[in-house]
Amino acid sequence: MATTAHCAYCFEILAADLEDREPLEYRKVQELWSQHHSLNELKAEEEDGQDPELQDGDDLVEDSEMDGIEEPDVDEESEEEEEPPPSKPSKLRLPSISRLQTTSPSSGSSSSTPSSLSTTSSRAALGDASKSSSNTSFFSFRSRRSQQPSPAARPKEEEHPLFVTWNTISPRGHKSLRGCIGTFDAQELSNGLKSYALTAAFDDTRFPPINTSELPTLSTSITLLTNFEPASHALDWDLGSHGIRISFQSNGKRYGATYLPDVAVEQGWNKEETIVSLMRKAGWNGRKDSWREVKGLGVVRYQGSKASLGWAEWKGWRDWVETLGR
After folding, report:
1. Residue of 60, 102, 225, 257 with fewest CB within 10 Å of its CB?
2. Are 168 and 175 in contact (CB under 8 A)?
3. What is the pLDDT of residue 106?
4. In this predicted model, what pLDDT tens digit does every residue of 182-240 receive, in sequence order?
5. What distance in Å separates the CA atoms of residue 315 and residue 312, rounded to the nearest whole number?
């Protein structure tokens, strides 16, 4: 599933490239993003759980100020002899812790836009220590010293086809596409997100490369593609739920293109309008009412898990990371 931590990694990769510094590693970003999110959650819980009577700044009334109540005298001996009730252990609080796209049939990478728009490693078991046949203390000592834990095996990374989208956000909140490129080939997320964060930022030929001054205006979206299956016909898919990838032949040429799941809904298209737009994006220039006459039109539908993140939230996290000396 796509997460804001994936988006944070893309921001880290892009910012590090533009600032000419080494980026944090993928796993470190995931770890620190989770820690920061947990701290924010704990802070919010503590604020929500604070006694409302104390939130106004009122102090607790001291015993000496309570009229009409006399405290019985207690000597030190009686205090020592009387065992206080065992206190209940306090619970340990664990940290809780647009995309329209054309693709070439010969390439796994694709850019996205309409023609008019620009997601505890376990400790490894101790290895069997070599046993010495000697009974001397010297060899016994060496045997004990040799019992070192083997390195913990890292869990296998998720692999997904993926797309990285960069948008600019105007002061009034208007979103404009700034670059979107992805691949239908499954990628390990650490490599795939790193590669396509930069490719979408610098190599989308519809736009000039993103520069440093634009960073505060950016937002990013990550879409991980899943559940690919052939459609029984061109309209056998659901608006807002499926992305589609088409392929067809016309005049001896092979065409192909794709739209991510959110594209048709964002543009306000119905299914037929989406198919016609996608065919035109692929290069077909026939009449819109004759799209059904195109021979060999194949449609593959798929779903996508999407997450988005804006610059301000990423920058707040990055400033916190810097206080840790990272």
Report:
1. 60
2. yes
3. 39
4. 999 999 999 999 999 999 999 999 899 999 999 999 999 999 999 999 999 999 999 99
5. 5
Side chain identity at residue 125, one-letter code: A
Please give the average per-residue pLDDT across 261-280, as a whole number. 95
The answer to whether residue 252 scores a pLDDT higher than 80 is yes
Total Cβ atoms within 10 A of residue 2: 21
Bridge partners (DSSP) of residue 219 are 167, 310
Nearest by Cα to 192 from 223, 169, 220: 223
In whole numbers, what is the pLDDT of the chain averaged over residues?
78
- For residues 156 and 266, what is the distance between their CA atoms, to the nearest angstrom? 35
Count CB-CB contacts under 10 A for residue 25.
13
pLDDT tens profile 113-124: 553 333 333 333
Instruction: Identify the residue whose tokens are 């409302």.
Output: 52
Nearest CA to 318 among 15, 96, 40, 43?
A: 15
